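User: Hey, quick favor. My workstation is busy. Could you predict this chain's structure for me?
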Amino acid sequence: MKNPFHKENNTGLIVGAIVAGALAAGAGIWFYLRGKRAAEAEAYRHEHAQDYLKNKQKKKKKHKTGLDELEDIVQHQQAPHEA
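Assistant: No problem, here it is.
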């Protein structure tokens, strides 16, 4: 018959519970910080989403020449070739 007043050794169980609790707390903190960092990055991306539009250079308009200007350009280019 077993002695009912004999104390069993539970130190392994206690140490295991402490280690498991510490791991769970560490994982919770890691997930919290990861989510916070992701939210900050998303806010930054949302804030600066259209910055590239500000730096974009506008295209220069093409110079449109009239028929009378074209005649002067063509005559100017042909003059050196004739000489």
